[in-house]
Specification:
The chain is mostly helical. About 70% of the residues lie in helices and about 0% in strands.
Amino acid sequence: DLHLLSRRQRQMCIRDSFPTPQRIHSTIQDLMVATGRNIMKLRKAAGLSVREMQNIFGFTTPQAIYKWQHGTAMPTIDNLVVLAAVLDVTIDEILVVQREDIVQFAT
């Protein structure tokens, strides 16, 4: 119990319960990577190649698709809408927004 701890110990417990900027950044990166893996999984389940996705979006190169799949970039909102329609899923099914989801989509 917190009331049994010294003032300094309570302050440390409270401080440690808040995420640091580094932990927040790490979490965001983890969620982006998990979302990317999910995009790849959904693309494959839809039977689409990266090249086909490139053509659907009208991209001159496939780099944007690869960046989405690797989690180094996220689709813009308008591209998310198109992606959801192409993959026949909702936007919520594309985005990984909870840490627990990372485990589910990591494999």
